[in-house]
Amino acid sequence: MKPTLLVVEDDADVAAMVRELGMGAGFSVRIAPDGETAERELRSTQPDVMITDLRVPPPDGLALVALAREQDPDMPVVMITGFATADNAIEAFRLGVFDLITKPLDVSRIRVILQRLFSHLEHRWRIEGLSTRLKQLEPGPGSAPVICSQPMAQAVSLLQQAADTDILVLLSGATGTGKSLLGRYLHAWSPRRDGPFFSLNCAGIPSTLAESELFGHEEGAFTGARKRKRGLLELADGGTLLLDEINSAVPEIQVRLLHFLQERVVRRVGGERTFPVDVRIVCASNEPLKCLVAEGAFRADLYYRLNVFPVDVPELRRRPQDVIPLAEHFLADYGRRYGRRLPGFTLEALEALAAYDWPGNVRELENAVQRSVVLASQQCEVGLEHLPAEVSRRQSSPGGPIPGMDPDASLEMVEEAWIRHMLTRCAGNKREAARRLGINASTLHRRLGQMR
Predict the structure, then answer these.
(1) Do 87 and 226 belong to one domain?
(2) Is there a contact between 121 and 3 (Cβ–Cβ < 8 Å)?
(3) Least confident of 14-18, 69-73, 188-192
(4) Separation CA 257–CA 259 (nearest Å)
(5) In a domain, 18, yes or no
(6) Is residue 190 one of the residues assigned to a domain?
(7) Residue 379 sits in a domain of what CATH number?
Protein backbone atom coordinates (compact mmCIF):
# COMPACT_ATOMS: atom_id res chain seq x y z
CA MET A 1 0.00 0.00 0.00
CA LYS A 2 1.33 3.44 -0.95
CA PRO A 3 1.78 6.06 1.78
CA THR A 4 -0.60 9.02 1.53
CA LEU A 5 0.71 12.56 1.02
CA LEU A 6 -1.61 15.50 1.75
CA VAL A 7 -0.66 18.67 -0.14
CA VAL A 8 -2.24 21.86 1.24
CA GLU A 9 -1.73 24.60 -1.36
CA ASP A 10 -4.05 27.30 -2.74
CA ASP A 11 -1.90 27.84 -5.84
CA ALA A 12 -3.24 25.25 -8.31
CA ASP A 13 -0.03 25.17 -10.39
CA VAL A 14 2.17 24.57 -7.35
CA ALA A 15 -0.24 21.91 -6.07
CA ALA A 16 -0.18 20.13 -9.44
CA MET A 17 3.62 20.17 -9.53
CA VAL A 18 3.96 18.76 -5.99
CA ARG A 19 1.31 16.13 -6.81
CA GLU A 20 3.31 14.96 -9.83
CA LEU A 21 6.58 14.86 -7.86
CA GLY A 22 4.88 13.06 -4.97
CA MET A 23 3.42 10.38 -7.22
CA GLY A 24 6.84 9.94 -8.81
CA ALA A 25 8.33 9.37 -5.34
CA GLY A 26 5.79 6.61 -4.61
CA PHE A 27 3.06 8.48 -2.73
CA SER A 28 -0.69 8.48 -3.16
CA VAL A 29 -1.42 12.22 -3.25
CA ARG A 30 -4.45 14.19 -2.07
CA ILE A 31 -4.86 17.96 -2.60
CA ALA A 32 -6.50 20.44 -0.22
CA PRO A 33 -6.83 24.04 -1.59
CA ASP A 34 -7.50 25.58 1.83
CA GLY A 35 -7.15 24.94 5.55
CA GLU A 36 -10.76 23.91 6.07
CA THR A 37 -10.50 21.14 3.46
CA ALA A 38 -7.16 20.11 4.94
CA GLU A 39 -8.76 19.76 8.39
CA ARG A 40 -11.36 17.37 6.97
CA GLU A 41 -8.66 15.38 5.14
CA LEU A 42 -6.53 15.09 8.30
CA ARG A 43 -9.48 13.70 10.25
CA SER A 44 -10.93 11.42 7.58
CA THR A 45 -8.01 10.31 5.40
CA GLN A 46 -5.35 10.37 8.15
CA PRO A 47 -2.44 10.94 5.72
CA ASP A 48 1.06 9.69 6.44
CA VAL A 49 2.79 12.94 5.37
CA MET A 50 1.67 16.54 4.90
CA ILE A 51 3.19 19.34 2.83
CA THR A 52 1.46 22.65 3.54
CA ASP A 53 1.88 26.24 2.48
CA LEU A 54 2.23 28.65 5.39
CA ARG A 55 -0.35 31.06 3.97
CA VAL A 56 -3.48 29.22 2.93
CA PRO A 57 -7.09 30.24 3.55
CA PRO A 58 -7.71 29.61 7.26
CA PRO A 59 -6.75 27.80 9.25
CA ASP A 60 -3.20 28.60 8.14
CA GLY A 61 -0.19 26.30 7.82
CA LEU A 62 0.97 26.63 11.43
CA ALA A 63 -2.49 25.73 12.75
CA LEU A 64 -2.56 22.71 10.43
CA VAL A 65 0.84 21.59 11.71
CA ALA A 66 -0.49 21.74 15.27
CA LEU A 67 -3.60 19.77 14.26
CA ALA A 68 -1.46 17.16 12.47
CA ARG A 69 0.60 16.77 15.66
CA GLU A 70 -2.61 16.09 17.62
CA GLN A 71 -3.72 13.50 15.04
CA ASP A 72 -0.34 11.76 14.75
CA PRO A 73 2.69 13.01 16.74
CA ASP A 74 5.02 11.15 14.37
CA MET A 75 3.61 12.56 11.11
CA PRO A 76 6.36 14.28 9.08
CA VAL A 77 5.25 17.76 7.96
CA VAL A 78 7.01 20.00 5.43
CA MET A 79 6.11 23.69 5.19
CA ILE A 80 6.27 25.81 2.01
CA THR A 81 6.46 29.58 2.28
CA GLY A 82 7.43 32.66 0.38
CA PHE A 83 6.84 34.90 3.39
CA ALA A 84 8.89 33.32 6.16
CA THR A 85 9.78 35.47 9.15
CA ALA A 86 12.04 34.51 12.02
CA ASP A 87 8.96 34.07 14.25
CA ASN A 88 7.29 31.84 11.64
CA ALA A 89 10.40 29.68 11.35
CA ILE A 90 10.81 29.41 15.12
CA GLU A 91 7.17 28.39 15.56
CA ALA A 92 7.34 25.89 12.68
CA PHE A 93 10.42 24.15 14.03
CA ARG A 94 9.02 24.28 17.58
CA LEU A 95 6.07 22.30 16.26
CA GLY A 96 8.52 19.80 14.76
CA VAL A 97 8.31 20.35 11.00
CA PHE A 98 10.43 17.93 8.99
CA ASP A 99 11.73 20.70 6.72
CA LEU A 100 10.98 24.22 5.46
CA ILE A 101 10.91 25.08 1.72
CA THR A 102 11.07 28.68 0.56
CA LYS A 103 9.67 30.06 -2.71
CA PRO A 104 10.50 30.20 -5.55
CA LEU A 105 10.39 26.41 -5.44
CA ASP A 106 13.36 24.30 -6.49
CA VAL A 107 12.03 21.13 -8.16
CA SER A 108 15.19 19.11 -7.49
CA ARG A 109 15.12 20.04 -3.80
CA ILE A 110 11.45 19.04 -3.47
CA ARG A 111 12.25 15.73 -5.17
CA VAL A 112 15.06 15.07 -2.64
CA ILE A 113 12.79 15.94 0.30
CA LEU A 114 10.07 13.61 -1.00
CA GLN A 115 12.58 10.79 -1.36
CA ARG A 116 13.76 11.40 2.22
CA LEU A 117 10.16 11.41 3.45
CA PHE A 118 9.46 8.11 1.71
CA SER A 119 12.62 6.52 3.18
CA HIS A 120 11.73 7.90 6.62
CA LEU A 121 8.28 6.29 6.48
CA GLU A 122 9.66 2.96 5.26
CA HIS A 123 12.15 2.93 8.15
CA ARG A 124 9.44 3.81 10.70
CA TRP A 125 7.05 1.17 9.38
CA ARG A 126 9.75 -1.51 9.50
CA ILE A 127 10.33 -0.67 13.17
CA GLU A 128 6.59 -0.82 13.91
CA GLY A 129 6.24 -4.13 12.06
CA LEU A 130 9.19 -5.62 13.92
CA SER A 131 7.73 -4.52 17.27
CA THR A 132 4.52 -6.38 16.48
CA ARG A 133 6.32 -9.51 15.32
CA LEU A 134 8.61 -9.54 18.37
CA LYS A 135 5.67 -10.02 20.74
CA GLN A 136 6.33 -13.71 20.09
CA LEU A 137 9.96 -14.13 21.03
CA GLU A 138 10.48 -17.82 20.30
CA PRO A 139 11.06 -18.74 16.64
CA GLY A 140 8.18 -20.75 15.23
CA PRO A 141 7.91 -23.11 12.27
CA GLY A 142 7.02 -20.28 9.88
CA SER A 143 9.49 -17.69 11.20
CA ALA A 144 12.83 -16.76 9.69
CA PRO A 145 15.93 -14.88 10.86
CA VAL A 146 16.65 -11.35 9.64
CA ILE A 147 18.43 -11.75 6.31
CA CYS A 148 18.87 -9.48 3.29
CA SER A 149 22.28 -10.67 2.04
CA GLN A 150 23.06 -13.49 -0.35
CA PRO A 151 25.70 -15.22 1.88
CA MET A 152 23.28 -15.46 4.80
CA ALA A 153 20.39 -16.45 2.54
CA GLN A 154 22.48 -19.37 1.27
CA ALA A 155 23.23 -20.53 4.83
CA VAL A 156 19.56 -20.35 5.83
CA SER A 157 18.51 -22.15 2.66
CA LEU A 158 20.83 -25.05 3.53
CA LEU A 159 19.39 -25.25 7.06
CA GLN A 160 15.83 -25.25 5.76
CA GLN A 161 16.66 -28.12 3.43
CA ALA A 162 18.17 -30.08 6.33
CA ALA A 163 15.40 -29.26 8.81
CA ASP A 164 13.05 -32.13 7.89
CA THR A 165 15.77 -34.73 8.45
CA ASP A 166 17.84 -35.78 11.46
CA ILE A 167 21.14 -35.18 9.69
CA LEU A 168 23.89 -33.86 11.98
CA VAL A 169 24.51 -30.17 11.18
CA LEU A 170 27.85 -28.44 11.84
CA LEU A 171 27.62 -24.64 11.99
CA SER A 172 31.00 -22.93 11.50
CA GLY A 173 31.71 -19.24 11.86
CA ALA A 174 33.36 -16.56 13.96
CA THR A 175 32.16 -15.68 17.45
CA GLY A 176 29.01 -13.56 17.44
CA THR A 177 27.74 -14.47 13.97
CA GLY A 178 24.50 -16.02 15.25
CA LYS A 179 25.24 -19.75 15.16
CA SER A 180 23.27 -20.49 18.34
CA LEU A 181 20.23 -18.63 17.03
CA LEU A 182 20.39 -20.56 13.75
CA GLY A 183 20.49 -23.77 15.78
CA ARG A 184 17.25 -22.70 17.45
CA TYR A 185 15.67 -21.91 14.09
CA LEU A 186 16.73 -25.31 12.75
CA HIS A 187 14.91 -26.93 15.67
CA ALA A 188 11.83 -24.71 15.14
CA TRP A 189 11.65 -25.66 11.44
CA SER A 190 12.03 -29.40 12.12
CA PRO A 191 9.47 -32.11 12.95
CA ARG A 192 10.98 -32.02 16.47
CA ARG A 193 9.75 -28.46 17.06
CA ASP A 194 7.34 -29.58 19.81
CA GLY A 195 10.13 -31.44 21.60
CA PRO A 196 12.71 -29.95 23.98
CA PHE A 197 15.64 -27.79 22.87
CA PHE A 198 18.80 -27.62 24.98
CA SER A 199 22.24 -26.16 24.41
CA LEU A 200 25.63 -26.65 26.05
CA ASN A 201 28.57 -24.29 25.64
CA CYS A 202 31.54 -26.63 25.67
CA ALA A 203 33.92 -23.75 26.47
CA GLY A 204 31.84 -22.40 29.34
CA ILE A 205 31.81 -25.41 31.64
CA PRO A 206 34.72 -26.87 33.67
CA SER A 207 36.12 -30.12 32.29
CA THR A 208 35.33 -31.85 35.62
CA LEU A 209 31.61 -31.12 35.16
CA ALA A 210 31.27 -31.43 31.38
CA GLU A 211 30.79 -35.20 31.34
CA SER A 212 28.14 -35.09 34.08
CA GLU A 213 26.36 -32.18 32.39
CA LEU A 214 26.14 -34.01 29.08
CA PHE A 215 25.59 -37.62 30.19
CA GLY A 216 24.24 -37.23 33.73
CA HIS A 217 25.41 -39.10 36.83
CA GLU A 218 24.21 -41.58 39.41
CA GLU A 219 24.02 -40.90 43.12
CA GLY A 220 27.45 -41.20 44.74
CA ALA A 221 29.28 -41.19 41.38
CA PHE A 222 31.69 -38.58 42.76
CA THR A 223 32.03 -36.27 45.73
CA GLY A 224 28.99 -34.02 45.84
CA ALA A 225 26.77 -36.29 43.70
CA ARG A 226 24.04 -36.58 46.32
CA LYS A 227 21.32 -37.69 43.93
CA ARG A 228 20.83 -38.96 40.41
CA LYS A 229 20.97 -36.33 37.69
CA ARG A 230 19.83 -36.68 34.10
CA GLY A 231 22.21 -35.24 31.51
CA LEU A 232 21.33 -32.98 28.59
CA LEU A 233 21.35 -35.86 26.09
CA GLU A 234 18.66 -37.55 28.17
CA LEU A 235 16.67 -34.36 28.78
CA ALA A 236 16.68 -33.55 25.06
CA ASP A 237 15.13 -36.91 24.15
CA GLY A 238 12.66 -36.28 21.31
CA GLY A 239 14.17 -32.88 20.59
CA THR A 240 17.45 -31.16 19.73
CA LEU A 241 20.74 -30.59 21.56
CA LEU A 242 23.07 -27.82 20.39
CA LEU A 243 26.72 -28.29 21.32
CA ASP A 244 28.18 -24.79 21.02
CA GLU A 245 31.93 -24.19 20.68
CA ILE A 246 32.46 -27.91 20.11
CA ASN A 247 36.04 -26.99 19.17
CA SER A 248 36.67 -26.40 22.91
CA ALA A 249 35.43 -29.83 24.04
CA VAL A 250 37.96 -31.57 26.28
CA PRO A 251 39.43 -34.91 25.07
CA GLU A 252 37.31 -36.96 27.50
CA ILE A 253 34.10 -35.46 26.12
CA GLN A 254 35.30 -35.98 22.55
CA VAL A 255 35.72 -39.71 23.24
CA ARG A 256 32.34 -40.14 24.89
CA LEU A 257 30.55 -38.03 22.27
CA LEU A 258 32.09 -40.14 19.49
CA HIS A 259 30.79 -43.29 21.20
CA PHE A 260 27.31 -41.76 21.56
CA LEU A 261 27.17 -40.78 17.88
CA GLN A 262 28.10 -44.34 16.92
CA GLU A 263 25.78 -46.22 19.31
CA ARG A 264 23.09 -43.62 20.19
CA VAL A 265 22.97 -44.87 23.79
CA VAL A 266 23.74 -43.03 27.06
CA ARG A 267 25.42 -44.27 30.22
CA ARG A 268 25.41 -41.91 33.19
CA VAL A 269 28.66 -41.23 35.07
CA GLY A 270 28.95 -43.86 37.76
CA GLY A 271 26.25 -45.98 36.17
CA GLU A 272 26.33 -49.41 34.52
CA ARG A 273 23.13 -49.40 32.50
CA THR A 274 22.93 -47.96 29.01
CA PHE A 275 19.70 -46.75 27.41
CA PRO A 276 18.86 -45.30 24.01
CA VAL A 277 17.89 -41.65 23.47
CA ASP A 278 16.37 -40.06 20.39
CA VAL A 279 18.00 -36.65 20.05
CA ARG A 280 19.18 -34.58 17.11
CA ILE A 281 22.70 -33.20 17.53
CA VAL A 282 23.65 -29.79 16.13
CA CYS A 283 27.21 -28.57 16.64
CA ALA A 284 28.69 -25.08 16.35
CA SER A 285 32.36 -24.15 16.11
CA ASN A 286 34.11 -20.78 16.07
CA GLU A 287 37.33 -22.34 14.74
CA PRO A 288 37.89 -24.51 11.65
CA LEU A 289 37.81 -28.08 13.03
CA LYS A 290 39.92 -29.35 10.13
CA CYS A 291 42.78 -27.08 11.21
CA LEU A 292 42.45 -28.29 14.80
CA VAL A 293 42.63 -31.89 13.58
CA ALA A 294 45.84 -31.07 11.70
CA GLU A 295 47.27 -29.53 14.91
CA GLY A 296 46.30 -32.60 16.95
CA ALA A 297 43.86 -30.57 19.08
CA PHE A 298 40.71 -32.36 17.88
CA ARG A 299 40.03 -36.02 17.16
CA ALA A 300 39.97 -36.83 13.44
CA ASP A 301 37.39 -39.61 13.86
CA LEU A 302 35.02 -37.27 15.71
CA TYR A 303 35.55 -34.56 13.09
CA TYR A 304 34.42 -36.89 10.31
CA ARG A 305 31.37 -37.85 12.39
CA LEU A 306 30.45 -34.17 12.84
CA ASN A 307 31.27 -32.91 9.36
CA VAL A 308 28.21 -34.48 7.71
CA PHE A 309 26.29 -31.33 6.78
CA PRO A 310 28.59 -28.32 7.27
CA VAL A 311 27.09 -24.83 7.03
CA ASP A 312 29.26 -21.70 6.97
CA VAL A 313 27.79 -18.75 8.90
CA PRO A 314 29.35 -15.59 7.36
CA GLU A 315 30.80 -12.73 9.38
CA LEU A 316 28.77 -9.52 9.42
CA ARG A 317 31.32 -7.64 7.30
CA ARG A 318 30.70 -10.21 4.54
CA ARG A 319 26.99 -9.38 4.58
CA PRO A 320 26.70 -5.58 4.95
CA GLN A 321 23.13 -5.66 3.58
CA ASP A 322 22.05 -7.24 6.89
CA VAL A 323 23.41 -4.49 9.17
CA ILE A 324 20.52 -2.00 9.00
CA PRO A 325 17.70 -4.61 9.06
CA LEU A 326 19.37 -6.27 12.07
CA ALA A 327 19.81 -2.90 13.81
CA GLU A 328 16.12 -2.12 13.22
CA HIS A 329 15.19 -5.56 14.57
CA PHE A 330 17.22 -5.02 17.76
CA LEU A 331 15.84 -1.48 18.16
CA ALA A 332 12.27 -2.80 18.04
CA ASP A 333 13.09 -5.71 20.34
CA TYR A 334 14.86 -3.74 23.08
CA GLY A 335 12.45 -0.82 22.73
CA ARG A 336 9.62 -3.24 23.55
CA ARG A 337 11.54 -4.89 26.38
CA TYR A 338 12.50 -1.59 28.03
CA GLY A 339 9.22 0.19 27.35
CA ARG A 340 10.82 2.78 25.04
CA ARG A 341 8.89 4.09 22.03
CA LEU A 342 11.67 4.98 19.58
CA PRO A 343 10.69 5.80 15.98
CA GLY A 344 14.03 4.71 14.48
CA PHE A 345 17.56 5.94 13.74
CA THR A 346 18.64 9.30 12.40
CA LEU A 347 20.14 9.32 8.91
CA GLU A 348 23.53 10.05 10.47
CA ALA A 349 23.27 7.06 12.80
CA LEU A 350 22.23 4.76 9.93
CA GLU A 351 25.27 5.89 7.93
CA ALA A 352 27.56 5.20 10.92
CA LEU A 353 26.08 1.74 11.46
CA ALA A 354 26.53 0.90 7.78
CA ALA A 355 30.12 2.22 7.64
CA TYR A 356 31.46 0.30 10.67
CA ASP A 357 33.01 -3.14 9.98
CA TRP A 358 31.66 -4.90 13.14
CA PRO A 359 34.60 -7.11 14.20
CA GLY A 360 32.38 -8.52 16.96
CA ASN A 361 29.73 -9.42 14.38
CA VAL A 362 26.00 -9.55 15.18
CA ARG A 363 26.63 -9.72 18.92
CA GLU A 364 28.54 -6.41 18.83
CA LEU A 365 25.77 -4.80 16.76
CA GLU A 366 23.13 -6.05 19.19
CA ASN A 367 25.07 -4.69 22.16
CA ALA A 368 25.49 -1.30 20.44
CA VAL A 369 21.76 -0.99 19.72
CA GLN A 370 20.81 -2.19 23.21
CA ARG A 371 23.02 0.55 24.69
CA SER A 372 21.49 3.13 22.34
CA VAL A 373 17.94 2.23 23.40
CA VAL A 374 18.88 2.85 27.04
CA LEU A 375 20.52 6.21 26.27
CA ALA A 376 17.92 7.61 23.85
CA SER A 377 15.03 9.72 25.12
CA GLN A 378 11.47 8.47 24.85
CA GLN A 379 9.91 9.01 21.38
CA CYS A 380 13.21 10.38 19.97
CA GLU A 381 15.25 8.91 17.14
CA VAL A 382 18.49 7.13 18.04
CA GLY A 383 21.28 9.46 16.97
CA LEU A 384 25.03 9.35 16.55
CA GLU A 385 25.51 10.48 20.14
CA HIS A 386 23.79 7.32 21.41
CA LEU A 387 26.10 4.92 19.56
CA PRO A 388 29.38 3.58 21.01
CA ALA A 389 32.41 5.82 20.33
CA GLU A 390 34.12 3.29 18.07
CA VAL A 391 31.02 3.23 15.83
CA SER A 392 30.25 6.96 15.79
CA ARG A 393 33.91 7.99 15.45
CA ARG A 394 34.08 6.73 11.85
CA GLN A 395 31.14 8.87 10.85
CA SER A 396 32.02 11.97 12.81
CA SER A 397 35.75 12.07 12.06
CA PRO A 398 36.70 15.21 10.13
CA GLY A 399 36.99 14.86 6.41
CA GLY A 400 39.75 17.40 6.01
CA PRO A 401 39.63 20.94 4.62
CA ILE A 402 36.67 22.10 2.54
CA PRO A 403 37.58 21.52 -1.13
CA GLY A 404 38.33 24.72 -3.01
CA MET A 405 38.48 26.92 0.12
CA ASP A 406 40.85 29.87 -0.09
CA PRO A 407 43.47 29.38 2.66
CA ASP A 408 43.12 33.12 3.44
CA ALA A 409 39.29 33.00 3.57
CA SER A 410 37.47 35.24 6.04
CA LEU A 411 35.57 33.82 9.01
CA GLU A 412 32.28 34.65 7.26
CA MET A 413 33.33 32.72 4.14
CA VAL A 414 34.38 29.71 6.23
CA GLU A 415 31.05 29.78 8.11
CA GLU A 416 29.06 29.88 4.88
CA ALA A 417 31.09 27.06 3.34
CA TRP A 418 30.73 24.92 6.45
CA ILE A 419 26.96 25.48 6.60
CA ARG A 420 26.63 24.39 2.96
CA HIS A 421 28.91 21.40 3.65
CA MET A 422 26.76 20.34 6.63
CA LEU A 423 23.52 20.71 4.67
CA THR A 424 24.97 18.47 1.96
CA ARG A 425 26.01 15.86 4.55
CA CYS A 426 22.48 15.97 6.01
CA ALA A 427 20.85 15.61 2.57
CA GLY A 428 19.22 19.02 2.95
CA ASN A 429 17.65 18.30 6.38
CA LYS A 430 17.87 21.69 8.09
CA ARG A 431 16.82 20.42 11.50
CA GLU A 432 19.59 17.84 11.52
CA ALA A 433 22.13 20.31 10.09
CA ALA A 434 21.26 22.86 12.79
CA ARG A 435 21.69 20.22 15.49
CA ARG A 436 25.10 19.21 14.20
CA LEU A 437 26.18 22.84 13.83
CA GLY A 438 25.20 23.49 17.44
CA ILE A 439 22.65 26.21 16.63
CA ASN A 440 18.86 26.30 16.69
CA ALA A 441 16.88 25.84 13.48
CA SER A 442 15.61 29.43 13.33
CA THR A 443 19.20 30.74 13.49
CA LEU A 444 20.17 28.46 10.62
CA HIS A 445 17.15 29.59 8.58
CA ARG A 446 18.03 33.26 9.15
CA ARG A 447 21.69 32.61 8.25
CA LEU A 448 20.65 30.91 5.00
CA GLY A 449 18.53 33.93 4.13
CA GLN A 450 21.57 36.18 4.60
CA MET A 451 23.73 33.88 2.45
CA ARG A 452 21.37 34.19 -0.50
Answers:
(1) no
(2) yes
(3) 69-73
(4) 5
(5) yes
(6) yes
(7) 1.10.8.60
